[in-house]
Write the structure tokens for this entry.
Amino acid sequence: MTIKENISLQSFTSFGCNETSRYFTSVASADAILEVLQWCKEKNIPYLILGTGSNVLFTKTYEGLILKNEIAGIVKTNETATEVFLSVGAGENWHHFVSYCVQKGWGGIENLSLIPGTVGASPIQNIGAYGVEVQECIQSVTALDTLNDQWVNLSNHDCAFGYRDSLFKQQKNRYLITQVHFVLQKQPHLRTDYGAIKEVLHEKNIKNPSMADVSNAVIQIRNAKLPDPAKLGNAGSFFKNPSISKTDYEKLALQFPQMMAYPISDKAYKLAAGWLIEHCGWKGVRKGKVGCFEKQSLVIVNYDHASGKEIFDFSEEIIQSVLQKFNLLLEREVNIF
Ligand code: EPU
């Protein structure tokens, strides 16, 4: 176990801010995690597990130990005529895993192509895009429960998945995920109903898309709409799309008839936060080193070595203006430390 001190987090987070961590180490096995946690306990310092740092913003020095999760491996544990079961190390790159499955013809996660991050981070915020959420393919999650240092295998139900939400978000930092167990389909029902996917397939004149066609369409849409974190610091959607009651929606829609929204049940609507932010005039606005991305207002970008605090303050300005104009309180999707 090698523990480094005062490490810049710039290259370990997709925002690329120069905040530091008091201690830093990498772990490539479940045993190594136990050893590192023991070290933290003895020193009585907090710890945080980090994948590729693509959904996190540090606004100050992290006064504990950051464990970079590098647990690897994609193992087929079982298969039937229609399904394949895979156990995947939490440190595997998400998109690499998706590409591997698409190539093998195992379906269910192709709409989640190109999402930055690791496999271990995918259940935490129940990543979702283009009509699919990862919870649909997760069978269970292996994690260390740090309350009692017991290894647990949490079923899909135990994970309490919701929109960009799960047990792991509700009980922040309690569970250290080491493996995610997936069930994928050999004859998947491809999900092409999301407007943007339909448009790309139509443009390319693809009538009977394959899994690879859907994955490529998603990659094309993401590349056209979302900034590449390797070129421009960002953490994808900075805010969640808010849900409101049908009654509140109907009142708001009278005032803003063009507002983008869709029903999620008989009683609730989900609103497009990107639309709300854009209609407060933020789209493409840059203030100093930080800005609201020109092609998708849900994304905040680090143009030029902004600090985490500057990004956080910018997000607060957006929240306040949406609150003033629409009387809606946006929630951050990105984890703030
Ligand atoms: N919209 C605007 N202005 C904007 C952005 C969006 O008017 O600046 C409108 C669009 O015209 C569209 C609607 O809002 O009618 C939805 O936009 P989009 O399809 O881009 O999706 P989103 O709701 O803005 C969500 C996810 C994304 C995911 C896409 C596609 C959240 C918080 N974000 O964005 O996830 O890629 O759907 O499924 O749910 C992420 O989580 O990091 C992420 C990028």
